[in-house]
Amino acid sequence: MKNVMLTIKMLKLPLFYLSEAWRLLRRYPIISVFLIILLFFTGIFADLIAPHDPIKQNLRSRNAPGYLWDKEWYAENPKAPKYLLGGDHIGRDVLSRTIHGARLSLITGGTALVTGITIGTALALIAGYFGGHVDEIILRFLDIWYALPFLLIAMVSVIIFGASFALVVILLALVAWSATVRNVRAEVLTLRERDYVLYSRVAGASHFRIIMTHIFPGVVNTVVVIASLRVGSLILSEASLSFLGAGIPSPTPAWGLMIAEGRAYVDTAWWSTVIPGVSIMLVIISLSFFGDWLRDRLDPRLTQLD
Amino acid sequence: MRNFIFRRFIYAIISVIAATFLVFGLSRMSGDPRLLYAKPGGYGNTEEQWEALGKKLGLDKPFHIQYLMYLGRTLKGDLGKTLLDERPVLDLFRELLWSTVSLGIVSWVFATALGIPLGILSAVKRGSLWDYIARGVALLGVSMTTFWLAIILILVFAVNLGWLPAGTRGNFDGYWWQWKNLSYYVLPSFTLGIGAAAGYLRITRSAMLEVLDSEYVKLARAKGVSNNAVIWKHAFKNALIPPLTIAPLLMVSFITGVIVTESIFAWPGLGRIGVDAIGNNDFPVLTATVLFFAIIFAVVNFLTDIAYAFIDPRIRYS
Question: Is the pTM of this model over 0.90?
Fold first, then answer.
């Protein structure tokens, strides 16, 4: 009898570990964080990791299949460089382009996010703290801003100013700023009624000082959560712009651009669209899980946000 | 209440004007539209002809006059002529309007029919198979970019399986409900609708969960009201407010989505001619397109505000 119990226990042990691992995975965004770290890692060390030059063309490797799944092709074409995930329509290495694309997404998404969120938070602080006409003007401006068909305006600007990295970042920042204003402003409205703000004013502190030392720290959590939830949609917007040819100009490896370029060959060379597409998807899913988790931890009241 | 509606109406109009102003300004910065016809002095064009053309297009007047002239003409229903082949823009719009609007309606119906019931189901039967399906759809809708999803759908259903047409709207003759016409709508409206469906789903689910946890639902249950009556009579109505409020936000993604979707599926609609107009520097078409999308958005926003005020009396008095 004792033996039977022991065997059952022995059998249960790995099950226990499995369920424990499953519980951890559900509780913490481990996979997402791992993928996000991977994204940062590949982005930062893109030059070291990428096996080939991302913009170097090779006529032999036009739409070449990946070395990973089609070794025969490489046996027949020994002079073609070994592209692990295949070549695109003008013979560039899809893997290297995807790796460099990660860097580009990081830089554009990150810069735009920081600029946009900073502007948005500053406006929210001003609107919420001063109230009255200032508040009204900022809110109405926000309403109008929401009503603009962004993509068309972005494309017009690209035609006028020419496609460039700076323009893409500016356009994305223009998308990002509006996200924070409403929620942060609501937060500021409650914070400014607190007694410590009143005492601080009685003690003669300037408005700027009150905003920076007493109000801003109170909204940091909200800002961080919104930023983490927004970064995914920024990366998507960047990809959409690149896809429509209004993003970062051509030889630079951007994921949206890779999809656009590979589109015509998708039935013969699926890898040049599917690989950047899956990359975008994984990044967005990871960011969304991570953002949700962060929100639940830092600011559960924001659950209504998405 | 009347005051509220009036104020909202004014904002809607200001939004539309701001949108046209921005695009009109930007498009005037993009270069002389006369260059589309001829380069200055080229092709045997005399200086006088060049100036005459400028006069005809109103380019000799200062910017704000041009803008006001444009506004006045628009109010009279004259959207100008396309620069490319001198067709009235209004005719072009009449031709393509229904194509875009019908695509929007089909996608909208799809998104609502998928998102709201699935959201309620997943909240009511939390942790069940339906809940997991719902979360899967939500994740798919959030993470799939419009263009990437479209390409995969075309590859699978049009190229490999051959079940559905890969693009365009077909000839569209006979009755609208015939499969030969409807089949063209399946892929584009799925592409366009899935993001909105995911948005509806998430918001309905969280709203429903919140309402089911509220005191009055608990009271109703304690009184012995049947489960169905609790869900449909007490919870459902109140859970519909949040999905209603995000409708205009989803509309934004619809407008962005329709531009991309129409470009990929070669759909003869307003989004696509907007993109083409940018390439052709054809700004009567471009401003008209932006005006159209801005108006649609303003109308939806306005109606949502009003519906919201009717449903939730607290809004009216704040």
Answer: no
